[in-house]
Specification:
52% helix, single chain
Length: 148
């Protein structure tokens, strides 16, 4: 578009769910390198280095999460920095259940518990062992269905 070049990062769901934003950025850099090599029919390591360095230096990245305090941050754009309002927009519970605000809110709360507690706190902050075991029943049981 004009003088800009955009890239959609195609990354396996497992990688983006279990790793932080830094991993996604590195995956993107790998895709940029491979796209240059494929587009210009180059062998890896040719004169593309200057083009890749320029593209990486001037790349504009759309981030969905805010930066965390330095003592908690692992990489840019990690799940802990996602604002709750943005997360609610991503889940779109109010679109699916426009006449039932309780059900719409429970959709967001359930997804938030999965992302922020199980994945982010469990995997990043505590190593993924032990910390999340206390809450397993809440996420694997249909206890909230009794109230909807």
């Amino acid at each position: 578009v004009g003088k800009s070049m955009y890239q959609a990062v195609h990354i396996p769901t497992t990688v983006s769910r279990t790793c932080d934003g830094g991993t996604t950025s590195r995956w993107s850099a790998m895709q940029i390198g491979m796209s240059f090599i494929g587009a210009y029919k180059m062998c890896a390591g040719e004169a593309a280095v200057a083009d890749l360095a320029f593209a990486a230096k001037h790349a504009g990245v759309i981030q969905m999460a805010d930066i965390l305090p330095a003592r908690r941050a692992r990489g840019p754009n990690e799940p802990g920095g996602i604002k709750f309002g943005h997360f609610a927009d991503m889940i779109q519970g109010d679109r699916k259940y426009p006449n039932d605000p309780v059900k719409a809110t429970l959709e967001v709360v359930g997804a938030g518990a999965m992302l922020f507690d199980q994945i982010w706190l469990g995997s990043y902050m505590s190593g993924g062992v032990g910390f999340t075991q206390y809450a397993t029943a809440a996420y694997t049981d249909n206890i909230l269905d009794d109230y909807c």
